[in-house]
Structure of MARVEL domain-containing protein:
Amino acid sequence: MSHSVTITRTTTTSTTSAIILNTGYLKTWPGILKLAELILGIVVVGLVGYYFDRYMYYANTPEVFFLLMAVTFLIGTFLLLTSCLISISTASIISKTVHEVVYHGFAFILYLAASLTFIIEVNHRKQHYSRDYEPYTAAAIIGLVISCLYLLSTIFAQRSYKGL
């Protein structure tokens, strides 16, 4: 006697697109430094961008250089922070490469150069920047603070790269 048994199985699949954020990264020193660099960078770009006068007939090279460096490293830091937040493995892998050391090192040097050039220019031509003196001075000082943050990030990146 042989029996024939038919089994019917119904399978239901559903897809979800859950975005997992690595919020633990913001509790580490490199994460805190990147977040501070990002927030202060937004403030600097907002200040200089708001008071930027594109119709100047005199050379405003220090102002443009400062704004260019601020926007460049704002975008770079945003991308680094975003990739460390949306990928758990990226936060651990990228810190062990030389990329962060080079990036933060160049950011420190160029932001420091741009901030010093800008603050010297604003103080040298104080009467010319009469309505913009305080915001530009504040932006340059915040730029110096951001430079210090990038120096600290360089030190942390170097230690992580060396495995300390």
The two ends are 74 Å apart (CA to CA).
